[in-house]
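User: Show me sequence and structure for the first protein, then do the same for the second.

Assistant: Starting with the first protein.
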Amino acid sequence: MAEFMTHLLFSSPRLRFSESQKRSILSWATALGADGLPSLHSLCKTREWIKALFGDPTEKVTASSGNIFYLNSISKAIAMDYANPLMHFSMQDYAEDGQGQMSQDYFIPKKFFQVKLGGASEAEVLALGHSISKTEVGYSVDPELFIVPVSTFARTYKDIKANGSEFSKGFTAAHAGLMPNPLREKSGGRMVLMVPLIVFMDDVSGNISKQWNKHHVVYMSNASMPRDAREGVLRALCVVLSTCCSVGIDPWGKGIH
């Protein structure tokens, strides 16, 4: 129990301890006569055993320049938000157009969004897309974008393609290779949602106590959550961390992708 509680204290995500601080705390507790205290070496072995058992969520990446930085998976973090019922049910899948004011988030509606039409109490999901016309050489896609209610959709691409006579020539050459959306095959028929992210970068100066060195860090927040939930404790995920100032943004972007 003493080793478990000590490991829990030293592994706190909200309060980080340096190795010298851990050693001082253990020495202080021993001087007070505490029994069964683990050694720092024993705690390190326990930490490595837990990592081997559950896996280390942080990936070490070496850039072409030889500089090293560390990554945490964005997709796994979002998947955990969806798996957590307290988080999932507070998330809003589509941004809402408040007709002059947005509901807590800035958003560029390129695909789907929702709006309250005609004073309705419930928001309706709308789609921003392209008009398609049937020609002698196949379906032609209008490059112009316009908005239609999702409730007016009658059939999916899969339904239309299944009708051989209707889909005999497919799409024109410009869009033949783009249909269907690659995410359709990847999702296996499941719903595909776009999760907006708030990403920001900061540099942290070295502390005089040497508890940490100067480093650069990239954080991410799930913008599908309401503002009060998003600004809660531990809702900002550390995505990238580097102690080298010359790593540059490009290797970080490639690593995240």
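Switching to the second protein now.
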Amino acid sequence: MGITDSVPISPSAPPDVTVVTPVPSILIHASSVKLVVFKTGAAPKVT
């Protein structure tokens, strides 16, 4: 019983998030890297 409840809830949630995360993850990471590089590059340049 416990396994049945854990299977639908646990695997069901991770798969959805994992499948939807990979694509957005790359975009978010790319954006984060660009923001970090931009801030890091902009700060020194301005300074």
